[in-house]
Known about the structure:
The chain has 290 residues and is of the alpha+beta class. Helix content is 31%, strand content 29%.
Amino acid sequence: MLVIFNPVAGRRRAAALWHVLDLLVENGVMVEVAETRHAGHATELARAAACEGRAMVVAAGGDGTIAEVANGLLGSNTALGVIPLGTANVLAKEYGLSTSPRAIANALAYRRTRLLWPGVARILGHEHVFVQMLGLGFDGAVVRGLPPLLKRAIGRGAYVWQSLWESVAYGFPKLRLSVDGRDYEAASVVVTKGRLYGGPYMLAPNAASTAPGFQVALFETPGTLAALLTGAALPLGLLPRCPGVRVIAGSHIDFLPENGVIMAQSDGDALEGTPACIVDASCPIALIVG
Length: 290
């Protein structure tokens, strides 16, 4: 079993990882750990492991690390395992994965799987894989502006703080897009494979991350008041019914060239460049769930 871990995650998360690994080794599982050294390194490590014919590669980290590993496994028969060590762990919550070290170790040992069908954003001539969501506009501004030290110190609370700041500082330019050939305008957009957003909070009740297709959340009303209203609705589970929020299904999303540069995030990490379009990955991945 190859475990890919980002050492930047910090001591507390490294301790949680070693707790899981100790349990696996105690039960006779052969474990190899590879630490990432730069952005995209997890993809390179996972791709090499898949080419070697490994049965499983485990992503130890948050949704961004999982997406990098998933990118390296696409098109192979190698299963994806997860040790959730992120701030929000949205994918883990989507699939009901445990954060208990013993339960994680048991899941990786038993290797029961479900499908995970990633999305692919085409940006500046390359393809970027995401496993949970991709957001543009206000959503992207919050992630880009988030101080890493604040995120480490207070976790999800850092997103609340940055959202309050961006609700005043962000300019809310119009974002024009096409979903399966039909044109829309919005102040912010979240394209999601899963139902959940920001942790355990409901965004798209009809999403199915095990199958092709997306749910596209259009935040149509610009401005500070609208941003604060949707922020307040999120923890109450009311976001899909919030005024000015529309969630539609689609399989091919194009962002029109006249948008210019729009800040974007993918699985909680800031993106360099604005996506031109979003489509499904060519095939699913087997995700180990227990």
